[in-house]
């Protein structure tokens, strides 16, 4: 019998499965199909080690009315989902209080400080070291006033050991000559790196897991079956049950629905992200560029240029609104003259967000054989390897090297 069943084959689930193998466990991964193009495939591919500050923070409140009413804004709520998503949105805004933000930063920093070293160790073991690109990211701005306007966030990053360097107009032309338009300056994010292609990284790691004797059950999971304080089985989409000994719940945006079967109610939202992937963009971008004023990211990958971003609040399984992908592609043309968006591929996928943008990682409160690992928001790719190592510690009965209380499921 399998020692540990991991539900969810995204980057967090795959990294957890490998870390559990390293502990000597027999592991089965359960997923609808590793070819599924969910968040681990469609993200911007950043190792965003300095992303310790939540999206909701002091100063965001005045921007919300425009964002909610403007389909071109970085954060948009579909009108038909406004009422159903209001409880989550209120918690999201409440998490932006200064005192709460400082708590979140204190929780995220220990996770993100480990991200690079954990990935380097994992990728080296899997023979994939070349998939982590040793080039820092750049955050681009229209003016220095835009940087100064968010000094609260940048000071927090610096204080916690995440470094950046100011780039003036000449510096920007030197490092990214293809960029123009309203961009006049930037910050070189010295600790942020990128992956050559996140989907390829996830797939190659999954192949590595299988090559070491891991098993894959290709199925959707519709529920968890518990007796007393133990989860005894998972229920598949067809109604059949598969016995489990230990369970890791890492099903991304679908985790909240499954967790309810064992009495865990978490405010987990599926915030849709979009990208426009260009195999032949006709321009060269040397770094991953986060354009703060435009609300999108340009990531050069081994498969082309990815233009990704936006947050759309629209429930768990909405129909794609590819106008969002077209909007960021058009915005990119304004700062990349000559960009060819023909032949591009559009994508939409759900990112699992808690209102405070911190993940849920830890033992289930009332079911000792279950470990929870979901809700990573915009840093799911970044924290895959680190979460996997923490999951392995918890399953093995070992005390993790960091305080896990900030990530408890019952913090709301």
UniProtKB/TrEMBL annotation:
<dbReference type="Pfam" id="PF01266">
    <property type="entry name" value="DAO"/>
</dbReference>
<keyword id="KW-0614">Plasmid</keyword>
<dbReference type="InterPro" id="IPR036188">
    <property type="entry name" value="FAD/NAD-bd_sf"/>
</dbReference>
<dbReference type="InterPro" id="IPR006076">
    <property type="entry name" value="FAD-dep_OxRdtase"/>
</dbReference>
<feature type="domain" description="FAD dependent oxidoreductase">
    <location>
        <begin position="3"/>
        <end position="394"/>
    </location>
</feature>
<dbReference type="GO" id="GO:0016491">
    <property type="term" value="F:oxidoreductase activity"/>
</dbReference>
<keyword id="KW-0560">Oxidoreductase</keyword>
<protein>
    <submittedName>
        <fullName>FAD-dependent oxidoreductase</fullName>
    </submittedName>
</protein>
<dbReference type="GO" id="GO:0005737">
    <property type="term" value="C:cytoplasm"/>
</dbReference>
């Amino acid at each position: 019998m399998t020692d540990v069943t991991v539900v969810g084959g995204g980057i967090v689930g795959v990294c957890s499965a490998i870390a559990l193998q390293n502990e000597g466990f027999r592991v089965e991964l359960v997923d609808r199909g590793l070819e599924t193009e969910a968040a681990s495939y469609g993200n911007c591919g950043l190792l965003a080690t300095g992303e310790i500050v939540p999206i909701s923070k002091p100063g965001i409140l005045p921007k919300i009315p425009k964002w909610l009413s403007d389909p071109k804004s970085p954060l948009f709520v579909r009108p038909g989902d406004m009422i159903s998503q209001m409880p989550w949105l209120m918690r999201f805004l409440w998490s932006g209080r200064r005192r709460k933000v400082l708590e979140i930063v204190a929780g995220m920093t220990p996770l993100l400080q480990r991200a690079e070293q954990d990935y380097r160790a994992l990728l080296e073991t899997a023979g994939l070291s070349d998939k982590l690109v040793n080039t820092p990211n750049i955050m681009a701005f229209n003016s220095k006033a835009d940087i100064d306007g968010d000094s609260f966030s940048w000071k927090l990053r610096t204080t916690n050991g995440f470094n950046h360097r100011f780039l003036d107009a000449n510096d920007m032309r030197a490092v990214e000559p293809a960029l123009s338009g309203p961009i006049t300056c930037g910050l070189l994010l010295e600790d942020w790196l990128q992956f050559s292609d996140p989907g390829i990284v996830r797939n190659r790691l999954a192949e590595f897991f299988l090559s070491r004797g891991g098993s894959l059950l290709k199925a959707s999971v519709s529920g968890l079956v518990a007796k007393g304080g133990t989860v005894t089985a998972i229920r598949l989409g067809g109604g059949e049950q598969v016995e489990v000994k230990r369970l890791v719940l890492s099903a991304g945006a679908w985790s909240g629905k499954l967790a309810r079967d064992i009495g865990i109610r978490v405010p987990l939202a599926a915030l849709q992200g979009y990208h426009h992937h260009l195999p032949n963009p006709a321009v060269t971008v040397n770094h991953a560029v986060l354009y703060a004023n435009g609300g999108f990211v340009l990531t050069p990958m081994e498969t082309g240029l990815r233009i990704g971003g936006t947050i759309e609040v629209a429930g768990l399984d909405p129909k794609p609104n590819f106008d969002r992908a077209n909007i960021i592609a058009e915005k990119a043309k304004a700062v990349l003259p000559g960009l060819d968006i023909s032949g591009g591929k559009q994508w939409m996928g759900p990112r699992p967000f808690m209102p405070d943008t911190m993940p849920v990682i830890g033992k289930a409160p009332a079911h000792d054989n279950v470990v929870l690992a979901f809700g990573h928001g915009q840093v799911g790719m970044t924290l895959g390897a680190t979460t996997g190592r923490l999951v392995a510690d918890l399953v093995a009965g070992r005390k993790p090297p960091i305080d896990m209380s900030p990530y408890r499921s019952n913090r709301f």
